[in-house]
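The protein record quoted in full:
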Amino acid sequence: MLHITPIATVRSCFAEKFGVPRQPGLCPSAYGTLVFEPAFRSQEAIRGIEGFSHLWLVFGFHETADRGWSPTVRPPRLGGNERVGVFASRSTFRPNGLGLSLIKLERIETHPTDGPVLHLSGIDLIDRTPVFDIKPYLGYAEAIPNARSGFAADAIPRLAVEISDAARPAFHALPARDQQVIREALALDPRPPAGANEPGRRFGTRMCGMHVHFTVVEATCVVLSVSAD
């Protein structure tokens, strides 16, 4: 039996599962760092990695791993009403709780205590996600333009995002990148399928060190408040 142990941990702009993009790359401004565990803080282990723009991360769904798995799941892309096999989905409720994410490598920092730290973008990982392996993305082998995408073939529709008068001062006080993360993440409509049927319902999530509350009116996400985490 194979025994795996985390080699690194992701520190993410997303503090919790709710609000995280459901796939990597959908929120290009989303950012985080990958910090290696002490046993793997070796410059030799990442020699040559700077030549790759994107990396595959094999990670663990650490917040749901103890909830078991199901042979069928209800993907949000199908409105949460139709079941498909777990292996025909990217559900977190898997037998081994493993995920795969393609992220962009922005730069490498050498930290005095943490060793080599990878700065990432386009992430769909929450804070403290354990990483079990890193592999470089090979465009010539892994980009398949005519691949079929089953029930998830259509592009995800985006909501318009508006900042309410009440939220505007705190929102515009944020760094420009954090403002963009919030806009991009909310445009993807993070509401659960059931919540989408409740007009006017208020939702809240934590990202970029802030509590962000919003509602959705028709095809527009309205940010109601932004406050310190």
Summary: The mean pLDDT is 94. Helices lie at 139-142, 168-172, 176-187. The chain is about 10% helix and 35% strand.
